Amino acid sequence: MLLRIKFIALFVFVFIYKNAFGVSDTLLFNAGNMIVGEIKNMERGVLEIDAPFGNTNFKIEWLSIDEIYTESKFLIATRNNLYHGKLTTIEGKKIKVYDSDTVYVICNLGDIVNLTQIKEGFLNRFSAAIELGINVAQAQDMRQLSTRSFIGYKTEKWSTAASYNNLRSIQNNADPIKRSDGELNFRHLLIRRWYIISTISSLSNTEQKLDIRANTQLGLGNFIYSTNKAYWGTKTGINNNYEEFSNETSSQNSWEGYLGTELNLYDISDINLLLVFMGYSGLSDISRYRADANFDLKYELPIDLFIRLDISFNYDNQPAENASNTDYVLRTGIGWEW
Prior knowledge:
- With 338 residues, the chain is mainly beta.
- It contains 1 helix and 22 strands.
- The strands form 2 sheets. The protein has a 12-stranded antiparallel β-barrel with strand order 11-12-13-14-15-16-17-18-19-20-21-22. Strands 1, 2, 3, 4, 5, 6, 7, 8, 9 and 10 form a 10-stranded antiparallel beta sheet that branches.
- The relative contact order is 0.10.
């Protein structure tokens, strides 16, 4: 009888809020508290919900939720699969993932590792970030400027993202330092956690005498491990590598096979740690191999601001004539993301 009264009260409360504010996702907690609003997403073990009575979105630890009922539709990632649908708590505190009359899976709350709201509006599917870093020193009148930018677009089945990073440094009695890299990639989800990926990327830097290194890649990826605390994935494929140099070294075009891995740790308070490694082995020139690695540490601040420490490393066992076989850059900056 008590359970029936509870659900009647919940139905009435949600009905009033839905008609007053147009929102209908509901969260219940062990202490008897309830939040009704619009769930935006859940990632890194934290759910974000827009409630009518708050000036900013509420962020709630995912595993602190006792019951959840949604009318919003999500791209739902579990430990083993991806679904498009809604969530509702059923008997035994299990979570039913469903859409209309189709039940996809019944699982525990902790088995769900990511929610991405499926938005109907074109502009609502975009995300973006921009970052700026400035270093000034009296010694040798050193001036350094670094910028980073990102824009992405996501649908139920595919996503695309573009990024561009730039570093410029000048000082007395030394040649200017220039480095820039950019990337455009496209991913399309297949079955379970597999996806196909196509990427176009570029790199130029003065240390390795690179005017341009343009890579065109096609490959297959898989998320091997995914939880509310971390994910680990790999990808492999083929790459066309075109290079032009700033010295007498002739331009060259070659084919390579690649193998990459990515580890993201995000249940460390407001810290996000990303490690990426890409290894390339020559197909048209089997004696050549290259490697790119990236370490990215981001600390989230209020109002969508963040500070970041980033280290990028590049290695080439056959660099241009009189050029270094390695190049690295360490960047710090403050940014804003949307």
